Amino acid sequence: MEDLNPSNFSFSTSRPEEGPIDEVANPLPRAVLRMNNHMLLDGQWRFALDDDDEGLREGWASGHTYRETAQWPGSVEEHLAMARGHQGAAAWKDQIVVWYEREFNLPEVAEPQTRSMLQLTFGACGYETRVWLNGQPLKTIEGEEVHYGEYTSFTYELDESNLHLVNRLTVRIADNMDAETPRGKQESYVYKRGGIWYQTYTGAVRSVWLEVVERNRLRSRVGVVSVVEDHLVRFNLTLRIHDPGDYTIRLQVFDPVTPNRKEPLAASDFPLHLEAGQWQQRVVLEVPSAELWSPEAPHRYRLVAQLIDSEGYPAQIETLFGLRKIEARGRYVYLNNQPIYLDGILYQPGQATYEEMQRHMHAMKALGCNLVRVHIAGIDPRIYNLADELGLLLWVEVPSPHSSTPRSRENHRAELLRLVTLSETHPSIIIWSLYNEDWGAQDIATNAETRKYIIDTYHFMQIAYPQFLVVDNDGWHHISYTGRLKSDLLTAHLYTPDLARWRELLDRLVGGEMEGTAAFPLVVGDPFFYRHQVPLVVSEWGGFGFSGYGGPEDAEARTNTIRAFKQELRRRPIAGDVYTQATNIEDERNGLIDPHTGALSVPEGLLASRQMEYLQ
């Protein structure tokens, strides 16, 4: 196998500078930047299909003859197609087990081994992943022998005693059509491929890399909570400690756009004694006269965070962050204490490449959107960074299971925690949806246990992640408990191609009619009486061009229809809307943006509206 490690390449841990360096494009799918070398293990791997699931029993991790190769990253479906000689992606209908293997040379490490270690990170891989190094099973930092989930990164620390000059890395990936696991809109035993349900896209879907990190360090996850009135920023940090002792967390905040970037705007030290293990710590820093982040002015600051040991050695990470406040109050959503109308669009990236997703984001901005609803899918975290930069608000969602059971709820909560932990750096993310249209919560109207789980999760999010608004079940069947909505927004999915019917539905919605507006009652549980005490958002509408939705397919007629429907929205006390949708995906042919080039099929600015025009 080709050696990806050049002969003069050496690894080093983070090198603190006198001040932050100029912004560097992040080559890795994560929000945090480490100023060290890394080695991507992307490329050609050996590959084997394990149809009879015999690899574990026969000890393939100790040695196996692989007859195929596959490109990492890439989906299992693509790799199956190549192995079987098919054109296009090969489908699987029950379960799949595949193995990957490759070698890598042990890189030279510039730092003393007593201070540093090699770390292996998978950007995303799933749904069930096991990893071996030189035939020895690895455990993630969290202690997992098997990692579950396919949307977020996970990491292994490599024991020096198990490292050789040439190392063999073996990966087993398993998945099935289990409706109790978070799947989003990928098919399952319950929802089959076709219509709004898509082919599976799983496996080795994101990069994998090696890097040298300190034994005692800050992990690559930083939570940011700002309360704009007090000029304080609360940073949630995760610390990884191997050597107990006295440490200092040092935070410095710089303005990356001012000429003098070596003098921090704010700085503070936080001494603490740490035992071995992984620890979460919140620290608070005052940033006086800071500019706020908004779609019109997406101002960001650079955080340099160091964990300094008793010998004065600093382990350093950096990230960009913005200060903003989001609130649902009365009829409207408030950003930085100012009412904002959410001009949104539904975005389903599907199997789009990172470069294609970048084009999509720019195109959605050109359409006049200030909000992108990323629909029950995991995406490359660098897209969150791009949204931060562009000033695009994001509404993100937990990929849903397809059945409502105690186990599906356990899996749902685990997926939520994995996603939110790795995305709370970004000022662009303002809304989280727990469920969508009852998927994975089909018994929400009849099962008190399902409602209790959603209520408890909503309360947890309010306390643990106050920087986000939370929607319990988007579209309909929101939960009322003692007359209090357990959702920060009252959302409705309204589809009709008829303008007169559209006006009728909107009037019924703003008039507080909980039944007969959307496909199902808007609220379940205890009675809820709408009196403008919560923002209304039409979180799906349009779909013009999709044969199942109706509406004009001609581009000019579609443009005129969208404009007329949008005007009706803005004439009413509605807080925002989300047009369906950005790009075509499989059988859904209702996009406004070319999925490959990012070109618009309608005029720029079509989905924009003047923020204060109808706010009275």
UniProtKB/TrEMBL annotation:
One Pfam family cited in the UniProt record for this chain: Glyco_hydro_2
Q: Which SUPFAM superfamilies match?
A: (Trans)glycosidases, beta-Galactosidase/glucuronidase domain, Galactose-binding domain-like
Q: Which residues form the Glycoside hydrolase family 2 catalytic domain?
A: 329-452
* Keywords (A to Z) from UniProt: Glycosidase, Hydrolase
Which domain of life, per UniProt?
A: Bacteria
Q: Where is the Glycoside hydrolase family 2 immunoglobulin-like beta-sandwich domain?
A: 230-324
Put simply, this protein is called: Glycoside hydrolase
- The answer to whether UniProt assigns keyword Hydrolase to this entry is yes
InterPro entries (alphabetical): Beta-gal/glucu_dom_sf (IPR036156), Galactose-bd-like_sf (IPR008979), GH (IPR017853), GH2_Domain-Containing (IPR051913), Glyco_hydro_2_cat (IPR006103), Ig-like_fold (IPR013783), Ig-like_GH2 (IPR006102)
Task: Provide the family line.
Answer: Belongs to the glycosyl hydrolase 2 family.
